[in-house]
Amino acid sequence: MKDSICERDAAAFLRQAGSTPVTHAFTACEGAWAVDESGHRFLDFHGNTCHNIGYAHPRMIAALKEQLDALSFAPRLFTSEPAVTLAEMLAARWPYGDARVLLGTSGADAIEMALKIAFVATGRTQTIAFNGSWHGAALGALSVGGTALEREEFPALEGCHHVHAYWPDGKGETAEAAAQAAFEALEYYLKGRDIAAVLSEPIRATPHLPPAWFWPEVRALCDNTGTLLIFDEIPTGLGKTGRFFASQHFDAAPDITVLGKSLGGGILPLSAVIARAELDVAPHLGIGHYTHQKNPMLARAGIETLRIIEDEGLVAAAQRKGRDALDILSEMVRNGAAYDEARGIGLAIAVAVGNPESLMEMKETCYRLGLNTGAADGRFLTLSPPLTTSEAELSEAAGILARAATASG
């Protein structure tokens, strides 16, 4: 008898936290649903936030098959029509003025490119990010990000500062107090040092929204100190929050926006940097000179993703469905003791488990009952369903969360 997929995985891959070994294998996925190696079918409301248009969208499958027959690859020093079209489409959708684009294969690629642009454009090398933030696994992204445990055993870039998060600490701190502490820390560092860039998610993917005043005030600070504002929208862009860009919820324009994850349609790895045209300052450097930077297959995935989001009205759908789902989850919280809070914007949603020690047990119970969730900040079950998820599927997920509270209690 052959070993299971997971046993073979454990034997074949180098071990690493969160990736190898694992306890389940994907064997099928479509829409909001997936199947594991045991035949267990479940709603995947995690999906690494890569499936905004759902898994295996038929239009995406057809587009990639067509592209495979037309042009399957373009090496470096060549461009391709799909790559140019995707860059044009991204720049046209960016609401902050004339823009230029770079393409990559991962969110970490795009963060690295954004940092390089900031360093060259400002002539500075120091950065600020928020404690607890995550911006990718590459060494530069790890250095700049605020997750200390992830970077502690690796060499780090110099001049990477980490300040109080703009979201509450989970120990009674209010959102206003957290934002005020974060702003004061930013003000201190920006006025006292030559900072190239502030890097942050405009809306933390858990999700946490800062008060309305926060980003406009940070934007003014950056303007006054010659610092660039980089918004990481890898998990929250492309309609997830009910606006195409999460930053559109605030009156604060970034200098650079970074996209990834769902840009590849839940099939291919694709990321992008969208920057103000004035930041086209490094023609002499290989800012993002990756082998697959202008790969026509990857670009076609991005093109079709944007078209599907637009043609199917998925941004407005995320806003509407998310509002209704949050109403249902808030009612669940009011009627039971297992959850303390439901929060969300668009289809970025989370529920806080009343007993943080039971978080992973609750997560596993949800999976057994047919719902795959994320877990964050030691107390939240996070839900990131596709924008194509039906109201019935969202209601089913809420029912599973309610049953999980009883089953785990």
From TrEMBL:
The keyword DNA damage does not apply. PANTHER family: ACETYLORNITHINE AMINOTRANSFERASE, MITOCHONDRIAL (PTHR11986:SF79), AMINOTRANSFERASE CLASS III (PTHR11986). This is Aminotransferase class III-fold pyridoxal phosphate-dependent enzyme. Keywords: Aminotransferase, Pyridoxal phosphate, Transferase. InterPro entries: Aminotrans_3, Class-III_PLP-dep_AT, PyrdxlP-dep_Trfase, PyrdxlP-dep_Trfase_major, PyrdxlP-dep_Trfase_small. CDD domains: OAT_like. SUPFAM superfamilies: PLP-dependent transferases. It comes from the Bacteria. GO terms for molecular function: identical protein binding; pyridoxal phosphate binding; transaminase activity. Belongs to the class-III pyridoxal-phosphate-dependent aminotransferase family. Its cofactor is pyridoxal 5'-phosphate. The keyword Transferase applies. The lineage of its organism: Bacteria, Pseudomonadati, Pseudomonadota, Alphaproteobacteria, Rhodospirillales.
